[in-house]
Amino acid sequence: MAVGFRIHSRKRAVADEWIKRARALPLANISDVMSRMASGGATLRPMHAAGGMAGPALTVKTRPGDNLMVHKALDMAVAGDVIVVDAAGDLSNAIFGEMMLAQAARRGVAGIVIHGAIRDAAAIRANPLPVFAAGVTHRGPYKDGPGEINGPIAIGGMVIQPGDLVLGDDDGVLAVAVDDCRAVIEAAETKQAAETKQMAAIEAGTLDRSWVDASLRRLGCEMPEV
């Protein structure tokens, strides 16, 4: 058994319904209804022109500085996939660049997440295909392996299984387990509806802010009576 250097088949993936509904929601609201306990880390930032990302994970774990298995993932990807690469967050060598971006676009990939570095940043920044990464360097990668495709990975403590829903917007990257998608998306939609009403109250000047002082008093803050 070649542990650490093998390719698995993806057994299942998030349903299209949840991908579509998640696209309409701010990532922050989805994060909130997950108890603010899931995060890909603050280093994963959007590198592309603009726009959000949603799709099932095609996971890759690779040795830092090596992108052989990322190339194989590009050949395996189907339209709508999000290729998520755990390269250990190392920024010494770029794992992804302009040529691979063109291949990803040709395959109809919905997004790329690199827990590591990219290069050809100007070309990626000018392109609408979502790319999230931890940094930029001009130094290129090696292509020797090892690595694994369609196994569990973890980025910043966030575990991602093949087929999980992977989301991205200007606030970063978030993964939702396949079995949690219905509950999470429905709860986030409820939260979004409540926030829409709250924003309307702010604009109308009718929002009740008494909770601020009530919280301070409950926590024992010394303050003047108004």
UniProtKB/TrEMBL annotation:
Classification via Gene3D superfamilies: Ribonuclease E inhibitor RraA/RraA-like
Q: Which cofactor does it need?
A: Mg(2+); a divalent metal cation
Its keywords, alphabetically, are: Magnesium, Metal-binding
Is Metal-binding given among the entry's keywords?
yes
Q: Where does substrate bind?
A: 97-100, 119
Q: Which GO terms describe its molecular function?
A: metal ion binding
| Protein's name according to its UniProt entry | Putative 4-hydroxy-4-methyl-2-oxoglutarate aldolase
Per the UniProt record, the source organism is: Bradyrhizobium pachyrhizi
User: Lineage, please?
Assistant: Bacteria, Pseudomonadati, Pseudomonadota, Alphaproteobacteria, Hyphomicrobiales
